[in-house]
Design goal:
The protein is mainly beta and 640 residues long. Helices cover 15% and strands 37% of the residues.
Length: 640
């Protein structure tokens, strides 16, 4: 029979709990489930990194796997490593200064032993030669580029400290390059890395700019899908290429700048049609993505069919000239076609904005004569559409009735070639989407659903995405992230459905599904919220013992509060360190039709956390935290 607490004990517990709250004390975090023992024969395996893999770290890195028996002892390169009861182990060890590292792994169990020499490859570590030198591999830019007159091309390289470094252009121009004192290695991501080891070679960087000029043989048209080769193998200064020289006293080093550059005519820009599904697969995000730099984060989402003018190209990235001052970069793969030569850059008068209220949304039709590039900026209670190439002639802003969702419309002309239209809302932005109808831009502004404050999940439509497969992380004893994610997601579905929600699952089996198939499924189902369940992995070079924990990621501004509430609840339920909330350029967090977030509950590579993720109890704790955060967000939304 279950034991029943006496009234005295129950009262005492309530008093103690109230006293803790009064003094700002939080209850102790819940513990992870115990790891069951494994007592099989020695079975020494490395789960990560794979043998002969190229690591992304050159200083220190993690390695993890299993021994098959929790009573075994383990050493790697002579250093003792903890073995957990299930045989799992994890270590973070320094790497040698060579191009190849060998982990000498020894496991012992009584009189038995197992030995494994596990080899991995390391990034090239530059060792400066004696005298004057230029590091050929460091030369940037490289490859094929197209540019208009006046564009400044940045050059950078590593060379001997104290050298006089110059750039030599065709025609005899010589430009000095200065020491790049502000240059430093950028550390991407939310995790802390150790500083470089002491004694690293002191290498100088040099940088400068030059005005674009033709270099090398002419390249094909800027929108050509394929460009064969980069440059000849035996170029000399007379071949119209650029050269770098470094001089110290009587000694000189010289290297060719590995760049072909063809000049474009700004008065005859190529005009293209953008579409992210040029292969006609049917699985599309519906927009070509624009970035502020060729390798930058997603910032523009040009709906398929948008017309754009091209002003430059670097490799396979095209520069879309939005206005005289603004530009975005898109992939050449997102060009569905090039319009006939002589087609002018897209431009249109913006003559009418008309609202059409409906039961679940308000549709704004912005009348244009061509499909201009545009961007939607989101504030707490406003949406602003930037129409690049638009010139306002907005005598008419038609509200189509007195619907309370859109309080006011306004327009502005911040530049001669840009018009903005702003929709001020009576409630916080819940969701929106854009599309083309002919040449008119349709902005559909979604209404927040009617939410019961006492039962905020009742009647809600929630899309739950178990992240992966394909790919995904793996734990020391072989637990796949896709399997762990699915277990948590199924537990979350049960809890949400018991609370009255309708749940849309992107998968319920071990089936590979594309990223944009998942978001499309959620949108077509009318989901009011999308949550993607994941478990984390570290990039190479990060110390797992100092950085693990729980985190949540959003992309659209409206999901910040949602991510914070879910993060707090996950940490409270799982008891792992709080890595916080971050904005992440993640496909499952980008949809605009509904608030969405991506959860990273635990780290599979941590033996205790991998074991916990195998247990239904911990999966329920993860799911309970997500559900409580979602419930709290819907309750707050009901009162706003």
């Amino acid at each position: 029979m279950p034991r029943v607490a006496s009234p005295f004990i129950s009262t005492l517990l309530l008093v103690l709990g109230a006293a803790q709250a009064l003094h700002g004390q939080r209850p102790a975090p819940p513990r992870l489930p115990p790891i069951p023992p494994a007592d099989g024969p020695l079975d020494l395996r490395v789960a990560y990194p794979p043998a002969d893999a190229q690591l992304g770290a050159s200083d220190s890195n993690f390695i993890f796997g299993q021994t098959g028996n929790g009573s075994a002892t383990l050493s790697i390169n002579g250093e003792g490593v903890e073995v957990h009861p299930n045989g799992a182990w994890l270590a973070f060890l320094p790497l040698p200064g060579d191009s190849v590292a060998t982990y000498h792994i020894v496991a012992r169990l009584g009189a038995d032993s197992a030995v494994l020499d596990h080899r991995v490859r390391l990034p090239r570590r530059f060792v400066p030669p004696a005298g004057v030198w230029i590091d050929r591999v460091s030369l940037e830019p490289r490859g094929n580029r197209w540019a208009e007159p006046g564009e400044l091309i940045r050059v950078s390289l590593r060379a001997a400290r104290g050298a006089d470094v110059t750039l030599h252009l065709p025609g005899g121009s010589v430009l000095p390059l200065a020491p790049d004192t502000g240059s430093r290695a950028l550390v991407d991501g939310p995790f802390n890395r150790r500083p470089p080891r002491p004694g690293e070679p002191d290498v100088s960087r040099f940088a400068g700019v030059f005005a674009a000029t033709r270099l090398g043989a002419a390249l094909p048209p800027v929108t050509a899908a394929r460009v064969n080769g980069v440059m000849g193998c035996c170029a000399t200064p007379s071949d119209s290429l650029a050269w770098i020289t470094a001089v110290i006293g009587p000694d000189t080093a010289r290297e060719m700048l590995p760049l072909r550059l063809t000049m474009l005519d700004p008065s005859r820009r190529s005009v293209v049609v953008l579409d992210d599904d040029t292969a006609h697969t049917g699985f599309s995000r519906g927009a070509a993505v624009g970035r502020p730099t060729p390798d930058g984060t997603f910032e523009w989402f040009f709906r398929n069919g948008t017309v754009a003018a091209i002003s430059a190209r670097a490799g396979d990235e095209l520069k879309v000239q939005l206005t005289r001052q603004a530009a975005a970069w898109v992939s050449i793969a997102d060009v569905a076609g090039t319009l006939p030569a002589g087609t002018p850059p897209p431009s249109s008068r913006v003559g009418l904005v008309r609202l059409a209220p409906g039961d679940s949304s308000v549709v704004a039709r912005i009348s244009l004569s061509t499909r201009l590039p545009f961007k939607v900026d989101e504030a707490d209670r406003a949406l602003t559409v930037h129409l690049y190439g638009g010139r306002s002639n907005l005598d008419w802003l038609q509200y189509g009735g007195t619907d309370p969702l859109v309080r006011r419309m306004s327009f502005a002309q911040p530049a001669e070639d840009e018009t903005t239209v702003t929709f001020e809302l009576s409630r916080p932005v819940f969701g929106y989407r854009t599309d083309w109808q002919g040449t008119d831009l349709m902005l559909t502004i979604r209404r927040a659903p009617a939410i019961n404050r006492l039962h905020p999940l009742r009647g809600r439509i929630i899309a739950v995405d178990p992240g992966h497969p394909p790919l995904g992380a793996m734990g020391p004893t072989g637990l796949k992230e896709a399997d762990a994610n699915l277990g948590v997601a199924l537990a979350l579905r049960r809890m949400l459905e018991r609370a009255g929600a309708r749940v849309v699952m992107t998968r319920t089996t071990d089936t590979a599904i594309g990223l944009y198939e998942r978001t499309t499924m959620a949108e077509r189902a009318g989901a009011e919220l999308l949550v993607s369940i994941h478990n984390n992995a570290f990039p190479d070079g990060v110390n797992p013992f100092e950085n693990n924990g729980t985190s949540a990621y959003y992309f659209q501004p409206r999901a910040v509060r949602l991510a914070m509430l879910v993060e707090d609840a996950m940490v409270r339920r799982m008891g792992l360190p709080n890595l916080g909330v971050g904005r992440g350029d993640l496909a499952l967090a980008r949809p605009t039709w509904m608030p969405s977030l991506l959860c990273e509950g635990a780290f599979l590579m941590i033996p205790e956390q991998e074991n916990a993720l195998r247990t239904p109890g911990f999966q329920d704790r993860y799911a309970r935290g997500v559900m409580e955060g979602i419930e709290a967000w819907f309750r707050e939304t009901a009162s706003r």
